[in-house]
Amino acid sequence: MTTPVSRWLGKTGVRVSPLALGCMSFGGDADEAASAALYARARDAGVTFFDTADVYNHGRSEELLGRLTAGARDELVIATKAYFPTGPDGNARGTSRYHLVRACEASLRRLGRDHVDVYYLHRWDDRTDLDETLRAMDDLVRAGKVLYPACSNFAAWQVARALGAAALARLAPLVAIQPMYNLLKRQAEVEILPMAAALGVAVVPYSPTAGGLLTGKWGVAKRPDSGRMTSNPMYQTRYADPAYLAAADGLTAIAGELGVAPAALAVAWVLGHPAVTSVLLGARDVAQLEQLLTATTIAMPPELRARIAALVPEPPPATDRNEERSPANYGAR
């Protein structure tokens, strides 16, 4: 087993592998045998961080991950999530105390564990008072069912507000955020990544290959016969901009020059941001995972990172004052 250099998970004192295995395919695109093969290859590559959610394949992902990790629980960091509907009942969703307690207990049963290491709020809840959510998460921590609360798909202001409220009430803080971040979706650079770096929050981005768009299979004149982008309306909507195909071609060309897989280069680019802790890899089979695992072997000097970044427009700063990035400004301290 190889052991890549691990990274600190925010301010927790816990170390995790720079590549994490996202288990959304377990029990879905990857059947039990394929899931076992993915897990074994990830472990052999030194991956210690595994991520799932209660809604992935109706809980099947958690069940498979629980069985696969049964003999190595003290060597791994396991994360799962709650928010999205787990049943037809109107209360089987959200981040209310009512739902979080039930969702956490159900996840623990499926995982076959007495606690989960990282428990993500899968989305900001527009209907539940934040204080209730934070208190519920703190109660789960105090009960020993959760070690570290975290969040996914939160805006920077939502994370900052949650951290402030938790500090004021002396509750367990959110230690990590899981945002979407890749070459085509760079909004996280505007506020989420700077916020995380300033406040010591771990960042675990998902979708580093943009739903497969950055794997070398897509381009202005290239369309694969299968994959998320061909069958999933959510991904088709998310990456509908035709300019993304030209950027995909550009990344593929640079990867060819370097002699690396485009998918691995896409992951290495995300991993190269200084605020990023660990990047979630998603794969249907070992062949896909094999390419992604080589990302840690790709050097990402500033010049290469900037060259790749230039394939897409840079998002404007939070203040929208583009001139602050140029000599035409009032100056800085």
Number of helices: 12
Just name the CATH architecture of the domain at 7-178.
Answer: Alpha-Beta Barrel
Query: Structural class, judged by helices and strands?
Result: alpha/beta
- Largest sheet, order of strands side by side? 9-8-7-6-5-4-3-10
Instruction: Give a quick account of the main beta sheet: strands, pairing sense, barrel closure.
Output: 8 strands, parallel
CATH topology of the domain at 7-178: TIM Barrel
How far is the first residue's CA from the last residue's CA? Answer: 48 Å
DSSP summary, beta strand count:
10
Helix content: 25-40%
**Order of helix and strand elements from N to C terminus:** EEEHEHEHEHEHEHEHHHHEHH
Global morphology: globular
CATH superfamily of the domain at 7-178: NADP-dependent oxidoreductase domain
The proportion of strand residues reads: 5-15%
Written account of the structure:
The protein is α/β, with parallel strands linked by helices. The chain has a domain at 7-178: NADP-dependent oxidoreductase domain (TIM Barrel), CATH 3.20.20.100. The chain is built from twelve helices and ten strands. It has helices at 32-44, 60-68, 97-111, 130-142, 156-169, 192-199, 228-231, 233-238, 243-258, 262-271, 286-293, 302-309; strands at residues 7-8, 15-16, 19-22, 49-51, 77-82, 116-121, 146-152, 176-178, 202-203, 279-281. The strands form two sheets. The chain has an eight-stranded parallel beta sheet. A two-stranded antiparallel ribbon has the order 1-2. Helix 6 (192-199) links the parallel strand 8 (176-178) and strand 9 (202-203). Helix 1 (32-44) packs parallel to helix 11 (286-293) and helix 3 runs parallel beside helix 4. It is globular and about 50 Å long. The N and C termini lie far apart (48 Å).
